[in-house]
Amino acid sequence: MTVSNEPVDDAADAANALEAMTQTIPPLTNLNEIPAIIGELTKLSTHLAEVALVIAGKIKTHRKAASIGDTRSNFAAGHSSITADRLREASDLIDNATRLLEGVEWGVEQVTWPDELRAEPQWVNLLRPQRGETGDLFEVLDVGGESGLVHALRGYNDDEWVQIRIAEGYVYDEPPSRSSDQVYRSNDLILVHNQDRDSIALYRQLPNTTEFPERVAVAVRAPARRARLGSPRPL
Fold this sequence. Notes:
By secondary structure, the protein is of the alpha+beta class. The protein is 50% helix and 12% strand. The chain has a five-stranded antiparallel β-sheet with strand order 4-3-7-6-5. Strand 1 (67-68) and strand 2 form a beta hairpin.
């Protein structure tokens, strides 16, 4: 393993690699690769817990040098200590996740699948903003409810955009959701949202006749799409 001495770049590379997996996993046809994938994710989780502890220690050690604005103060030092403690709590939670992943890894190793599964995905993601980009959407949700938000996002539900998203690989066997998410269905659309997690996603069910082209790198992204459509507003 090479060390770059650029931790910000390393963190960005790790985040980008995980984001890429959200597109490379759905088309996976050989499920016998899953144990290896889970094994690598378990290693990543272990290292993530370690990194959180190292950063917490760094913040704690230098808390007295912290400042808010241009002024050093006991408040800034206390704030830093609280932040470090929360990082340690996060590390403990990640350790718990690692143990769960170890159990999952053992479980998937006990079964095998045919080498190639040809079933085509049934859903395409139309919209999934990054954290911090959902504020306007939750405002629409608060005013117009789930049906109002789906209606406000109707501009994403056109055939051109669907084909772009399919080509980029945003296709799934079923819309991903956690137990804490709210799921709303309207005809062939599903809205998955969770304000605590700052998460909103819109999916469209694909007809059985959908053709799946080779995945290509497409420059158009949801933010550019939003720029063209304008921010959604309740009707």
